[in-house]
Structures are given as structure tokens and as C-alpha cells.
Design a protein that fits this description.
With 590 residues, this protein is an alpha/beta fold. Helix content is 35%, strand content 24%. Strands 16-17-18-13-19-20-22-21 form an 8-stranded mixed β-sheet, with helices on both faces. α8 links the parallel β7 and β8. This is Peptide/nickel transport system ATP-binding protein. One of its GO terms (molecular function) is ATP binding.
């Protein structure tokens, strides 16, 4: 049997510079999953983009061939005209892009953008396309497919936008799907369901898959063949089992060593101390009103947070985990004063141990200015949070200028000091954000948050888009900064392996509610709530002999109506958060 896609001796370069991809070769068989693994900048994505001929204008394929052998014939993709390639893109070969916000039009509704694939390649009518797209939306995990169909990209969370991209790529049932970090922005339960969905589609249609990823747990669950790339070259290639069980190349071994895992040893964690709390949230709820698109329909209430009670001790880390839309980021924004809670909710902040608590949402202008110096945020997407038109020096000194701290020379020295503290060189101050890798941009975001010497930092998915080696560096950096400066972190994540490493206490959220809360040592080895069990079961491990248990994931990640009677809740009947053992709280009917 001939390969569905055959890449031979591919070399790609930019302008007159050296080749960034050199001599890359691999084959993808029909129905097979090939994983391209490596760090950012290793050449994985650009090799895949070459197959669809969507390279940047300055890039050129310098040598090699890319051949497609599908049911419609054989084609050398490097020689086809642009007109011929239009019939292949999105139809015979589809691609899921890593950054959905940059790949989706902000001016068109999600449903119309996904339906366009069926209009162009199948000639489907509007009603036929809508019916098929709604079905696809349901399969990729949209809780309300009709609402998602009529929403714009900016009205959705990052995870929801990624689901829309996956639906767009799979709705035409292509013969080859190229998935570029398809689950990076997804929580682990949705990731497990999406990976299961892709496998199911492969069985139904015989679709082949090229999976570009840095997550070795995903590779272990999905791939039959693995190609490990580094600096544009293939380091190791072959069947997945021997590579994952016994990697031969030192670089592959290095990737395994950097991959975070939930520890195996059982332990009893101690609850977070109450004597020196820097942040305390009591009875915090947040309700949004979504206006109906039809004049005769009632407006819909969206409960983003409901009765959230959390305490963060000084110098400690409280992690909030949960799926997209569970209320994690809303709770963090309320903690920072960026959102007003519903009446009855209260957030208290103490600048020092002996200071009187400040009510965050009742501050005077002077108190708010002082609070903003002490509480900062590191955002999920460092590229979007740094202005592309500002040099790094200007972006970093801006907080000091706003708060009128120091003169220009002192501000510049402070910026240089912060860059060195996060492992970057001070001569990078004159560069723009686009000149940095993803990991370097995340370091810049952390350095900018540190400019005002804060006591509290809210980290919103700070490692979700990073490859494992860079993720390891960022986590080590955060730990070192906490130890040396006694920082407190409110850490938002969907990666339980990361949480197990960095957190002193974990709060699990689902549909705006904290459903379980405990130290990680207790939570991971004695989970009580079905949703927590689903999160742990959905965590992919770099072990080909320990696949994800999709049945357990589906049980806990499903509707609360499907849970056991002890944990079941609805909009009108919500059980209390009960302390079953010291420091271990579970939302259940006692």
C-alpha cells in the first residue's frame, strides 16, 4: 500500500538565510496517526504548512517533494497551481491551527465560518450545512451548539474557540487531518473527549492524522508512528511503542525528563494555614445576562460563579482547575477587582500580615492605586498581552510611569534587572515582542508583572501554550521567585500535572461552583467528586500502556444530572461544600 502523504528530503528556508528545515522525510499511511514531536521552533508546523502551501511569503521550499496519494489520485503538492491547491485545502486535507483567535474571522459568526467549508466544497444549502455543523458542534463538546453557532469568536473562551476550529477541520471528513497542537487550549476532560472523537472519526472514515504536539501524553494515547524533530532536523523516527518505552536519542530522553507528571507516591496534604491570609473570597457570585437574539424570547442568565469561598495564605499557591467556562478566570478577575461580584460577595486583601483588610470592591481611588501595585496578572496568551508596537523596554517601564515611580534611568535599570531575574538578557530591551519565542514572551510577561514588586500574582494558564522543556523552565522560575520574594500565586490551570507540582491547595470548579477543594497530596489520591475523578483520569501520561479511560472521563465530565445522587445538582438544588476530612471539602448531599 502506498503512503497517503509522502514527504521526501524537505528543506525550507527564509530569504537568503540558512534552511530552518533540512532533509525531513516521513510517510503517513491511510488511517494512521503520525506524531511530530519537538520544542517550539523545531520545524514541526512549517513542515506541515508546506504540505498545504500556506508558508509565509518570504519562505521557500528549497528541495524535496510532498506527494498526496488519495482516492482522487496522485498529486505532487509542491508543483500544483494555486487554483488546484484550493480544491485540496479544507477538503482532501484539513488543518487545525494552534491559535484559533488569529485563524477565525472576528467579523463573522462561528457557525457561518464552519458552514463555509460545506458551501464551498460540497455545494450544501444553508439549512443542510447548519444541521450538519450543529451535529459536529455537539460532538466536539459545545454545551449549547445553537448558541455557539450564532456567536462571534470574541464571545467565546479560548477552549471554546479551539473546539470550533476542530469542528471546522473535521466537518468535511477529510482523508488527512493535520492537527497543530489541537488540544493546547483545552481542559483535560475536553482534550480526552476530542482525542476520542478524532479516533472515532478515523475508524469511521479511514482518515489519517498528523499530530503536531509537545505533549508526550497525547502522543502515547494517539500515535502509531513518531517523528522527533529538533532545529529543523529529524532526531528519531519510528513506531511509537519503542520510542516511548525506550527513547534512543538524548534529545528525546530530555523531552521525557521535562514532562510533568502527577507523582505516584501517596501522601496526606496539610490544609493551607489561616493565620496570614493575603486574599479571602467569601460568598462570591457573578451572574451575566445574555440578551436574546429574538425579541419575544426572555433574556438568559449565565451563572459564571456561584458562592465561591477561597482563602490564599501569604507565600503560598492556590490553584483553580476546571474546564473552559467553569468560572476560573471570572473568579480571578473578581479577586483582582476587574469584575464586580453580585451583591453579598466580598473580597478582602491584606498588604501585610498585620495590616487591616481592604475590601477590594469598595476601595477609594488611592486605595485602588496601592492595590494595583500589590496585585498583578500574568495572562494566558503573552503575544496578545504585549503590544506589538511597543519595544520591550517601553512595555516594561509603562507600569512604573503610570504609578510615577522613579526617573527614566531608574525605570530602565529596573527593567534590565527584571529581565535578568527571569533569565533573559538586558540587551533585549530594544526588541519588539515578535522577535521572541513563546517561552521568552511568557518570561517577559512575568517580568512585566514583577516591575511593581507585587505581593500577589494571578497566573492565568501561564504554561498552557508552551512545550514541555520551556514549561519546566517557567515553573522553575515561578518557584524560585516565590521562594526569594515570598510571592503568593492564584494559579489557574487545566493541567493537573503542573498543579500537582506547584500548588499548596487545589480548588476544582465546575459550572461556577467549587465542587472539591484540598491539598494536592489529598486530592489526587483520594478524590471524592466524580468530576475530580474525571479530571485525573483524563490527564494523559507518556506511557503507551496507560491509555485514557474515556468511560470514566465521560461519566464525570457529563451533565451533573448523570452523577450519583450524593453529588447531583441543578440550577435550583445545589448541595453544600462539606468538609469530609480536615482540609478536604466536597460538594455533596450529606
Amino acid at each position: 500500500m502506498s503512503a497517503l502523504l509522502s514527504v521526501r528530503d524537505l528543506s525550507i528556508g527564509f530569504g537568503s538565510g540558512p534552511s530552518v528545515v533540512s532533509g525531513v522525510s516521513f510517510d503517513v499511511e491511510p488511517g494512521q496517526t503520525l506524531a511530530l514531536v519537538g520544542e517550539s521552533g523545531s520545524g514541526k508546523t512549517i513542515s506541515c504548512r508546506a504540505a498545504l502551501r500556506i508558508l509565509p511569503r518570504t519562505a521557500q521550499i528549497r528541495s524535496g517533494t510532498i506527494t498526496l496519494n488519495d482516492s482522487k489520485g496522485t498529486a505532487n503538492l509542491t508543483e500544483l497551481s494555486e487554483r488546484q491547491m484550493r480544491g485540496i485545502r479544507g477538503n482532501r486535507i484539513s488543518m487545525i491551527f494552534q491559535e484559533p483567535m488569529r485563524s477565525l474571522s472576528p467579523l463573522h459568526k462561528i457557525g457561518n465560518q464552519v458552514s463555509e467549508v460545506l458551501w464551498l466544497h460540497r455545494g450544501a444549502s444553508e439549512s443542510e450545512a447548519r444541521k450538519e455543523v450543529l451535529g459536529q458542534f455537539e460532538r466536539v463538546g459545545f454545551p449549547d451548539p445553537a448558541r455557539a453557532y450564532d456567536s462571534y469568536p470574541f464571545e467565546m473562551s479560548g477552549g471554546m474557540r479551539q473546539r470550533a476550529m476542530i469542528a471546522m477541520a473535521m466537518v468535511s471528513k477529510p482523508e488527512l487531518l493535520i492537527a497543530d497542537e489541537p488540544t493546547t487550549a483545552l481542559d483535560v476532560t475536553t482534550q480526552a473527549q476530542v482525542l476520542g472523537l478524532i479516533k472515532e472519526l478515523q475508524r469511521e472514515t479511514g482518515m489519517a492524522l498528523i499530530l503536531v504536539t509537545h505533549d508526550l501524553g497525547v502522543v502515547a494515547n494517539m500515535a502509531e508512528q513518531v517523528v522527533v524533530m529538533h532545529k529543523g532536523r529529524v532526531m528519531e523516527a519510528g513506531p511509537a511503542e519503542p520510542i516511548l518505552n525506550n527513547p534512543a536519542h538524548p534529545y528525546t530522553q530530555q523531552l521525557f525528563d521535562a514532562a510533568p507528571e502527577i507523582p505516584d507516591q501517596e501522601a496526606v496534604g496539610l490544609p493551607m494555614p489561616d493565620e496570614d491570609l493575603i486574599l479571602q473570597m467569601t460568598g462570591v457570585s457573578k451572574t451575566y445576562t445574555m440578551r436574546s437574539s429574538k425579541g419575544w424570547s426572555a433574556n438568559k442568565l449565565i451563572h459564571a460563579c456561584r458562592g465561591v469561598d477561597m482563602k490564599l495564605a501569604r507565600g503560598k499557591t492556590l490553584a483553580i482547575v476546571g474546564e473552559s467556562g467553569s468560572g476560573k478566570t471570572t473568579a480571578a478577575r473578581i479577586a483582582l477587582g476587574a469584575e464586580l461580584p453580585d451583591p453579598g460577595g466580598e473580597v478582602l486583601f491584606r498588604t501585610t500580615q498585620d495590616a487591616d483588610p481592604i475590601t477590594v470592591h469598595s476601595m477609594t481611588r488611592a486605595e485602588r492605586t496601592a492595590f494595583q501595585r500589590k496585585a498583578q496578572m500574568v495572562f494566558q496568551d503573552p503575544y496578545s498581552s504585549l503590544s506589538p508596537r511597543m519595544r520591550i523596554q517601553d512595555a516594561m517601564t509603562e507600569p512604573l510611569e503610570i504609578h510615577r515611580i522613579g526617573n527614566s534611568a531608574e525605570q530602565r535599570d529596573k527593567a534590565a534587572e527584571m529581565l535578568q531575574r527571569v533569565g533573559l538578557n538586558s540587551d533585549m530591551l530594544k526588541r519588539y515582542p515578535h522577535a521572541f519565542s513563546g517561552g521568552q514572551r511568557q518570561r517577559l510577561s512575568i517580568a512585566r508583572a514583577m516591575m511593581l514588586d507585587p505581593a500577589l500574582i494571578v497566573c492565568d494558564e501561564p504554561t498552557s501554550a508552551l512545550d514541555v522543556s520551556v514549561q519546566e523552565q517557567i515553573l522553575t522560575l515561578l518557584e524560585n521567585l516565590q521562594d526569594s520574594l515570598n510571592l503568593s500565586y492564584l494559579f489557574i490551570s487545566h493541567d493537573l500535572a503542573v498543579v500537582a507540582r506547584i500548588a499548596d491547595e487545589v480548588a476544582v470548579m465546575r459550572r461556577g461552583l467549587v465542587v472539591e477543594q484540598a491539598p494536592p497530596e489529598t486530592l489526587f489520591y483520594n478524590p471524592r467528586h466524580p468530576y475530580t475523578k474525571a479530571l485525573i483520569a483524563a490527564q494523559p501520561e507518556p506511557d503507551i500502556n496507560r491509555p485514557i479511560d474515556l468511560k470514566l472521563v465521560a461519566l464525570g465530565a457529563g451533565s451533573p444530572d448523570s452523577w450519583d445522587d450524593a453529588f447531583r445538582f441543578s440550577d435550583t438544588v445545589i448541595p453544600s461544600l462539606v468538609e469530609l476530612e480536615p482540609g478536604h471539602k466536597v460538594r455533596c448531599h450529606v
